[in-house]
Each structure stands twice: as C-alpha cells, then as structure tokens.
Amino acid sequence: MTSELENLPMCELSIHDDSGGNVCLISQLPSKLRCKLFNLLTKSMGEMRLVCKSWREMVESWATPEHLPEMYSIHMIEKDDNAMSIRIAVHKSEQACFVHLRSFAKQLQEKSTRFYTGISACSFDVSYGSADFHRLSSVISTKSESVCLSRSGKPFGHPNYLNAFTILLGTFTRISNLHHWGHYVNEENAKMLLDLAQKFSLKMMSISVDVFERDALAMAREFLLNLSEYVELIKIKVYDQSMDLAIKKRDLNSCDGTESAEWADLMLAMFERRTHSIEMFTYYVDVFSWDDLRRIAECLMARDQPFLFTTYMHEKPQAIIVKGLRKNTIRFSGQWIVSLFSHPPPPHIYVRYD
Fold first, then answer.
1. In Å, what is the CA distance from 76 to each residue of 31, 146, 165, 230, 289?
2. In terms of Cα–Cα distance, which of 138, 134, 104 is closest to 122?
3. What residues have CB less than 8 Å from 116, skipping those under 6 apart?
4. What percentage of the chain carries pLDDT values higher than 90?
5. What is residue 112's predicted lDDT score, i.e. its pLDDT?
6. 3 state SS of 298
7. Which of 43, 99, 145, 152 has its CA 20 to 30 A from that of 184?
8. Contact predicate 174/70, CB 8 Å
9. Angle ∠(179,173,32) on CA atoms, nearest 5
10. How far apart are CA 119 and CA 140, in angstroms?
C-alpha cells in the first residue's frame, strides 16, 4: 500500500465528484486521517511541499515528533560542563520530513557533517537546560534506530550531561540500538542504562567496562548479568584505566586464572537469559584462556540454542573441537579475533566460518 501511494504523481492524489470536477482529497480529509496518510508518504514529502503553499503548510503541520519517521541515529557528545554536541542522521529519502529540524540546526550555526551514502546529517551544540535544549525534542522524531552517548575528554559523565540525555530520551518511544562509549559503566549510570534497556527492549547495547578497580569490576559484572535480561546483543569494550594509552599496545594486562574463569562463568550466565550474542572487545586486556573458550563453546552447544560469542585472543590459536560448532578466526594486529557460533546463528546475525 505504501509503495503504491508513493508512486502516484502528486496531481493524482485527488478524487472526482459526480459532475466531473476535481476535489482535493488531502485538504478535505479530517486532520487525523490526513496524518495517517502522510505517515505512508514520508518519502514523497519533498514533492508534496512543492505543490503549493497550502500543501507545504499541511506537511509542516504534520511534521510533529510522533509522526516523523524513525531517525537513523542521534549522537549526544558531552562537550563540557555546560553544553553537548548533537549529531542527528536521517535517511536522505525522508529528510524532507525533518523541515523543522533543519531550521532549528541552522539557527544554532549548524556544523558541516559527512555521513554514509543514503544518509543526511546535521550537527550543532546546545547548552544544558536552555530554551534551545527544551525545543530540541519538538523537532526530532520519537524513534531512532541508534542512540550514541559519548564524551569528549572526561572520565565520567557530568551530572548535567547525564540529566540532559535522560530528559531527551524520556520523550522517545522506540530505540533499537544504544551505544554508550567513552563512559565506563559505574554506579552513576548503571541504573539509567538498565532502565533504558528495559523500557525499549533493546536489540543491541554497546558499553565500556573498566577492570582496574575490583569494586568497580564487581559492580560492572552484576550490571552485565542484569542487562542480559533485556538485550539480545551486547558489545563490551574491556579497558584498564591504570594503563597509559601510549603503552597499551606494548604492555598487556592479563587476568589471572581465577578472574578468567569468573568471566567465562559470567558469559555463560548471560546466555541463559535474553542475550543470544556477546561481542567482547578485549584488545588491551587479556581476559580469556583457550581452556575458557573451549568450555564456553561446549556449554553453549549443549544448550541447543542459537548463539554468537566473539572475543580477542592474545595467544596463538588452539583447536576447539565441539560437534556442530562453527568458528571463525581472524588475525588482527598480532592478535586473533575468534567467533564461536551455532548453525544457524542467531537471527539477523551474519558470520563467516573457517
């Protein structure tokens, strides 16, 4: 139905009365019904705005947050204690729907932004608690495929930043993927992240975990276990903040045997819940032994459920032979990225195997 309507020339969106005269269908429709029709024509909004002044006004009246199509992404970057940078990307075929956003961004001295083919983006800074910040939620969609929260040079999120994106995301009705880069999981943000995961039943969440402090690590492990109740795919970056960035590639921090076994137990416990895919980015911290990886593979295959588990290994690959297991190993910068998965893999997951 949607494609058929979008393929109609704008002049054909009308009906004929008994005397043979034309009566404009769209302008005569009740506003609620007209909005439902516009929701099916998001890729034709640019043409519709060019028909005449009244049609342009109808489109602009329709373009409210609840009617706007899903955004490709919204990226909220903590700039300093007073402001954050916002980067919003939408599909080019639907960018005409976001006429109010474009006007808003220009008023805030929009920055130039390059993005992927088929994607249009705008970028600007906004102060916390300002009139512009409160207006922002009225010019964007309540739906986004991805939300990214990150920082600019600070170890943890400032309360103003945490409060700002909590308020902004409170207006959303649908989010599929949440990326929380640059801020380690800690007591200040763990509850907020779990609340978002539960509210939106996220398909994917990306997070960062610090293994330097034992107390913080214990809290992060508890968080990951709770997170697995709500999220299908979890991506985890493991860092040790005690290591200087300049020497991370030369000096590798390794977990001892007990810690390694604890991580393996945690992964298996997470797979017992909603999570079916885990990707561990352990480039700087050696988390698992090959014996741990073999145990994970055996236990996951015994469950007889689709799964994907990926991690970095810092030792030369060893054989993992488990009946029915699929495996892919890629050499990367002196390490090995190892993926273990079922056949078939979880839905929407594409993997190659050795």
1. 34, 11, 7, 23, 37
2. 104
3. none
4. 48
5. 64
6. helix
7. 145
8. yes
9. 145
10. 16
Q: What's the mean per-residue pLDDT of the chain?
A: 84
Distances (CA, A) of 213 to 83, 184, 239: 30, 12, 11
Closest CA to 282 of 260, 312, 256, 258: 312
For residues 293 and 321, the answer to whether their CB atoms sit within 8 Å is no
Domains delineated in the chain: 2-62 (1.20.1280), 65-172 (no CATH), 203-354 (no CATH)
What's the residue count for the chain? 354
- Report the DSSP pairing between strands 14-16 and 22-24: antiparallel
The alpha carbon of residue 233 and the mean position of all alpha carbons in its chain are separated, in whole angstroms, by 11
DSSP 198-265: HHHT-SEEEEEEE-SSHHHHHHHHHHHHHHTTT-SEEEEEEE-TTS-GGGTTTS-EE--HHHHHHHHH
Give the residue among 41, 47, 62, 36 at the shortest CA–CA distance from 11.
47
In this prediction, residues 178-204 reach a mean pLDDT of: 89
Of the candidates 353, 290, 288, 351, the residue with the CA atom closest to the CA atom of residue 324 = 353
**CA dihedral angle for residue 38, residue 39, residue 40, residue 46, rounded to 10 degrees:** 60
Find the helix or strand (DSSP H, E) in which 109 lies.
none
CA 325 to chain centre: 29
Higher-confidence residue of 28 and 174: namely 174
Q: Which residues contact 337 (CB under 8 A, 6 or more apart)?
A: 310, 311, 312, 313, 329, 330
Sheet strands (E) in 152-196:
174-184
Mapped onto helix, strand or coil, the DSSP state of residue 99 is helix
CA distance 101 to 156: 29
pLDDT in tens, 114-159: 667 899 999 999 999 899 999 999 999 999 999 999 876 555 557 7
Nearest-angstrom CA–CA distance, 168 and 134: 8
Cut 0.85: pTM above it: no
Residue type at position 78: E
Burial class (CB in 10 A: 0-12, 13-18, 19+), 32: exposed
In angstroms, the CA 15 to CA 28 distance is 10
